[in-house]
Amino acid sequence: MRVRLNLATKPLESHRRFLLGAGFSAFVAAIVFVALGWHVYTVREAAAEDRARKEKISREYARYQEEGNDLKRFFEQKDIKGLKERAAFINGIIAVRSFNWTQMFMDLEHILPGGARIINIEPKQVSGQVELNLTFGAADDEVKLKFLRALETSKQFSDVQIHSDVKVIPGAGASTDAKVVHLSTFYSGA
Fold first, then answer.
1. Quick one: CATH architecture of 100-187?
2. CA 63, CA 107: separation in Å to the nearest integer?
């Protein structure tokens, strides 16, 4: 029979568990390190692409800015500026002449209630739109409100603003209007 005797002052300890745990921790740390390194690499690549794109956009912006400045200098020349003003004047005349009175009167006819009548119409061109200064008479407040509601809900007339609302004194004239209202509105004619 064999007897195992250990005559050492300290018993022999196995470090196998520690070495396995340390090896496994080192393996996991290496995987995390590689994953974080790959993430940093891809982020740096994306940032480099973004920087390159931003530089390209800023170069294009500078080029367009320079072209815009060249065009501005060109149109600021005395000869070109006079031509531009003349073209704007002629376009304004054409726009005023092309105002369709017949269509406007037809649109007004559709929304004008009984007891209301148009006294005065003055169209003028304001920044590409036709603004109508309109004066109308109404037999009473109800007719006036009907006409104003019809103007506001109409597709052809927009931005109705009342400038004056005068009550007419009976017997002051041949008119049967109890109210005379002056307003402005934009007419689209569509």
1. 2-Layer Sandwich (3.30)
2. 50
Whether 178 contacts 135, CB under 8 Å: no
Report whether 160 contacts 185 (CB < 8 A): yes
Q: Cα dihedral sign for 25, 31, 33, 36?
A: negative
Residue range 65-83, pLDDT digits in tens: 999 999 888 888 878 778 8
Give the strands of the sheet with 179-187, arranged side by side: 116-126, 129-138, 179-187, 157-167
Query: CA separation (Å) from 53 to 42, 50, 63?
Result: 16, 5, 15
Cβ neighbours of 78 (radius 10 Å): 7
pTM strictly above 0.85: no
